[in-house]
Amino acid sequence: MIVTTDAVVLRTMKYRESSRIAVLYTSALGKISVIAKGARDGKSRLGGGLQPMNLVSAVLYVRETRELQLITQCDVLAPMHALGGDLDRMGAAMAALELTDAVSPPGEPSGELFDLLRATLGAVSAATNQPGNALYYFELHLLGLIGFRPLLTSCASCGAAVEPEGRAEMRMGHGGILCRDCSRKGPSLEAVSPAALAALRRLQESADPASATRMVMEPPLRGEIALVLRRYLLAHVEGLRTLRSEAVFSSL
Question: In the list 97, 213, 224, 235, which could disulfide-bond 173, CB 3.0-4.6 Å?
Fold first, then answer.
């Protein structure tokens, strides 16, 4: 079966002398592994397009009986090479790729996830300030797509409304913030400042990741939001560990 589909390149690796294996997240087939024969040959048109973060149009020869499909054509729709000179952009984009890879079983397409990833990479690339905000948007809305949308306006335990004034508490495995009464009833709570809670609510309500990059947040607030979201993701995404992009870019 020949399939033509838009795809985001999640990761690649060398294969034998001249070929390359790539993991794509496609609009038609979800996550799929492909082999690009001869892609590392200087004369091949495939190699230039199969770079992580690129949005491409791919032609695939698909057989359900094999795990590794064949890619024969790869046209770049939106190159992301501009991200290479900016560590903040690169770190945010790579984290979005890793999270997509982590939560996506092979062969289970989600148009909503594909659109979210594509919009996030575009927002990171186009942002004039605070591109990391697009990643926070991505993480919050990814949690919603996989069934773990955090409750940020009402108590995850009793359902009571939670006002943004004062510090809130969040139990990472419980589904969101807790009201003052419920936060007294158990351990493993994470304090969330009023500013962080307000920002998380704005990010959750934002129309798209591009609008999130227009939010102005100081470094301490961004750091708190990043930590809260990462701990929440670790509590709800089975098998998720520290992201390689996070470890690399935090050390620079």
Answer: 235
Report which residue type is found at 142. Answer: L
Extract the tokens encoding 113. 């996830």
Q: How far is it, in rounded angstroms, from Cα 144 to Cα 204?
A: 10
Three-state SS for 62? Answer: coil
Q: Dig out the tokens for 87 from the structure.
A: 């560590």
The first and second tokens of residue 181, run together, are 């009464």
Q: pLDDT tens across 98-114, in order?
A: 999 999 999 999 999 99
Q: How far is CA 104 from the centre of its chain?
A: 11
Angle at alpha carbon of residue 48, lines to 43 and 53, rounded to 5°: 165
What the block records as the tokens of 164 is 């943004």
Q: Residue 84: its pLDDT value, please?
A: 63
- Alpha-carbon distance of 135 to 229, in angstroms, equals 10
State the chain's maximal CA–CA distance in angstroms: 67
Yes or no: say if 45 and 74 are a contact pair by the CB < 8 Å rule. yes
Whole-prediction pTM: 0.91
Cα separation, 87 vs 46, in Å, equals 26
Assess contact for 150 and 236: CB atoms under 8 A: no
Q: Which of 173, 165, 170, 175 is nearest to 190 (CA)?
A: 170
Q: Which of 159, 175, 185 lies closest to 232 in space, CA to CA? A: 175
